[in-house]
User: What shape does this take?
Amino acid sequence: MTAGRVAVVSPAPTANGDLHLGHLAGPFLAADVFTRYQRATGREAVLGTGAQDTSSFVVTTARRLGTTPEDLVADSTARIEATLAALGIGVDGFSRDEERFTKLVLDFHSRLHAAGKLELRPVRFPYRPSTGEYLTDGFVKGGCPLCLTEGCAGLCESCGHPLAAGSLIDPRSTEDPSEQLEIRELPVLVLPLEQYREQLRAYFEQTGAALRPHMALAVREMLAAPLPDFPVTYPGAWGIPAPFPEVPGQVINPNAETMAWSMYTTGLGAEKRGEVLAADDQLWWPEAGTEVVYFLGFDNTFPFAVAGVAMLMALGDRYALPARFVTNEFYELDHQKFSTSRGHLVWGQELADRLPRDVGRYHLAATSPEYQRTNFGWEQLAAVTGARLVAPWNRIAEKDARHAGRTLPVSAASRAAADRITARFAAAYDTEGFSLVRAAETLAEQLGRLDRWEVTDQQAGDHAHQVRTVLRCAAPILVDLAAEALASRALDTLLLGGPCTTTELTVRPLPHLAVGVD
Assistant: This one.
């Protein structure tokens, strides 16, 4: 049993639509599987996410759809929560638009402000003369000055670097691209990140080996040069109003909410699991002994791992720093990036409606974009899951069904083999080497081996014993299959602490799977 609590965080998607498979195949399924494994090994774990309502993309999407931002947030939040549940993502703390969250954000930034960590500095923004608006994030797009990729301001999805609105190449209003923009300066409150560059460098040197290569490269690039000022407030009418007199009419930058939001959602999760907290940020106090692990898309590297960690550093020893970041790349549909605006996507709810969710979870795990972009296709799903999961599992279930109700011996050799099976899965689930793809590969390899086994009466107990070991180990992915087998007493335990160690095993029929793709 591993001591201590782990808080698992997957950044909240913008509340401007439902979740598509790109969201699910990346951080959400990985965070869920990791959390389930941590609990299986005896560790207290909470999983937090939510729906971010303060992003400017809520406003731009609402205008495009002809609705109000408030109605869009309410509808999107409900859809996001329903889709997570439909795919078996067991969220403990789900944040939404509520006063308690707003208070924690304001308390966090007021603490930085009171400590003199925020400075009023001029920042350049594109200015729209026709409306008198300074444009930020979803309201303006242009080229990234570092990698030249086209995108909206805020963060570059390609290189992961911060993308200041005033530094865009050929900035254009997303609402009226033909309007000529001006570049004007406006004083905003910033966190001078350069003051924390050496601390950040030391922090990442301690944890750098745990970063996946793309994130490690981006962090090295960012820390190799002076860091930009990070706007904590900026102009806008949508978001959490900044309470500071120096910046009247400004709001908190949504990308500066990261740490306060993380504390809030993990605190909610602990409460849901029965814990009474003295404060919403208690899990992040050093004395709480919480290990914080993030599962996030590569493009969230800067706001969470660089600017977010720097904000924690600015508050001294009040908070523990995150222990690990697990990133993913983009998931594609028919070899093109998922796009809500172009309608090029598959919604998570559609996947849940069309096939058993264990089949969907397995396929998303097997094709997870951990180190490079991967692709989704319905024909590919049917072929992959049919050949690697459904067909071998069903043949295995039929083999074990022949011995239903019999008490069979389990040999020492089979127990040793089960130990090796457990170790192989644990290597894929463990924090340092966590990989959904390797867990899915291990499952397919073991099912293939057990399927090829010509089971004699003398070997039936060993075969059934190893089948149950594989299913226990695959339980973080195959949640329904494992639960059904457990309910029918076909499994001894769901814990990954080790296989059955008894010398006899009562075999009962195991449930079947179906691909279920139309």
User: Anything to note?
Assistant: The CA atoms of residues 403 and 507 lie 6 Å apart. The chain has two domains: 5-348, 356-506.
